[in-house]
Amino acid sequence: MPPRVIEVEDFDLVVFGASGDLAHRKLMPALYHRSLDGQMPDTARIICSARRDYTDEDYRAWAREAIQEHVSDYHEEHVEAFLARVHYTAIDIGSGEGWDKLKTILDTRPDVIRAFYLAVGPDLFGTICQAIGEHGLKTDQTRVVIEKPIGKDGASAKALNDVVGTVFEEQQIFRIDHYLGKETVQNLMALRFANVLFEPLWNAAHIDHVQITVAESLGVGGRAGYYDTAGALRDMVQNHILQLLCLVAMEPPSSMDADSVRDEKLKVLQSLVPLDQDKIERLTVRGRYVAGASQGGAVPGYLEELGRDDSTTETFVALKAEISNWRWAGVPFYLRTGKRLAKRVSEIVVQFRPIPHSIFGERVGAIPANRLIIRLQPDEGVQMKVMIKDPGPGGMRLREVPLDMSFAEAFKVRNPDAYERLIMDVIRGNQTLFMRRDEVDAAWSWVDPILEAWQSSKTPPKNYTAGTWGPSASIALVERDGRTWSDDDQ
Ligand code: BG6
Question: What's the rounded Cα separation, in Å, for the pair 206 and 348?
Fold first, then answer.
């Protein structure tokens, strides 16, 4: 059955940084798909802006190429129809030239929803927001979208949020964490709160620990310049991974209303046990890849890609987090992410406690505890590992089997990219899948001490060979607790 499409209200979406990488890889393909699926009214406009002196036609050629490169269902006539909504107007943010022209374009439709998407570096957020305010481009129906990184630490995030907040109200600000738009991430909420099965078991009495892995096989490649100022903790843990942790650990919100969900996520972030110096040494591991083999070929190390050898930036993080509340006290959350790991896989593994007593005697051997695996990518799906009787006559033998649901197989529909849903949510004004300011602050409060300790540490990140699962210290981190990372048995 094709997915149900509900058309959004009429809108003008202004994309700043429209000639950049995000627009090329994500925004144009996502908007094309939403247009193709009939979710945009015929009159909706996408007004693209960057410094380059493009005409509408030049920009449309650029956007066409982006769509061609990044979508698998390219249809010439649909692309034409989509591009007809795309307009271009140059703005030089530095000199301030071009804003009047944008105002003229927007003033022709003052009553439709207006969204400004800042697909630019955070250093331009303030200038752009102020110019929007000064040129009177903000209407009652306006929203602004900002992308991570939201700051480099708590203090810079505060400064950045302050500057955006001088022009926009909190309910107009959409802070994107694209992980929240991933199909399986939302399925986590469906799984927990649309089934009666899991919730009674979803606590320290029945769950032994949780693992969250976001492993990438690619290196930093052409992004080394940005990446070296960030590192894996800022790039992935402060936002994506902590957001995943929140969705696993939060109390049931009273509804899917944005603030109900975000209130519950905030409580989780505020309940994370702070890591002091001693814990940082014991419970965190940072690594950096050196030359190795990945995806069938030899690949350089991080420092070679960066072209410098004085960097202490980590490309891998593993850590053990704990949440001090009634539901989760004593349940470790092992978090792990890195570039150039053995394979690209993102998953959440909920490991239940072992059965209290085996009636099967010693002959059947150990009975592995149940595991719920929520796979974000590749091959989105949910797997429940359960024990069954090995088929056939003879004695009772047990075997672990997966109850497997692959979304691609079950639904036979294209899995929409996170940006498709998120951009449409912006137009709808639904903030449920966007980060509220206090969440960002709380996440930084937990991450800041780790960053500070690492910065003042004399020890560099531990090396790991590209194409492996990270430094051995990461394996030791969980083995010390008598556990293993879930990839060990895949
Ligand atoms: C981005 C990070 O936010 O997420 C990148 O900046 C990372 O470094 C990317 O590669 C991962 O996203 P996805 O959707 O490919 O898992």
Answer: 17
